Amino acid sequence: MPPTRPAIQLSRLTCLVSSHPARHFPLPRPSAARTLASTHPPDVSEHPSPDTASHESHYDPPSGWLFGIPPGEKYENEGWENTWVYGFWGSLVLGIVAYVYKPDTSIQTWALEEARRRLEVEGILPDPDDESKKQA
User: What value, to the nearest 5°, has the Cα angle with vertex 61 and ends 58 and 65?
Assistant: First the structure.
């Protein structure tokens, strides 16, 4: 006969139930579920009153101001703007040139050159730099 397991003490069982992660999530309120499930139109009291709902145009006519500069005034550059513009575009061009002319350090290129060099040493491929064999 297998040994019987001792019964779990009531205080330990309470501790296990209270530490369950699902216990920390609140249950949905019945009123919220009822509101979501209802299909009747909302009450008139839920609509804004005529005082707060305006039917005026929300369009602001152009005033001529652009970025805080009044119309007819010329914008004056701040001291840092030219440095930023030339620094940004200059570093971008320099980065593109460096990327275009960077050396090819991929493993595929190295393996192709190494295989070609070994085949030339073994005599399977002719040496492309040897002029005497090209003329013969």
Answer: 125
17: left (phi over 0), alpha (psi -120 to 50) or beta: alpha
Surface-to-core class of residue 124, CB atoms within 10 Å of its CB (0-12 exposed, 13-18 middle, 19+ buried)? exposed
The tens digit of pLDDT for each residue in 89-102 reads 999 999 999 999 99
Q: How many CB atoms lie within 10 A of CB 125?
A: 13
Asked if 133 and 126 touch (Cβ cutoff 8 Å), the reply is yes
Q: Which residues, including other chains, have CB under 8 Å from residue 70's CB and lie 6 or more apart? A: 64
- The alpha carbon of 35 is separated from its chain's Cα centroid by a whole number of angstroms, namely 37
Q: Indicate the pTM of the whole model.
A: 0.39
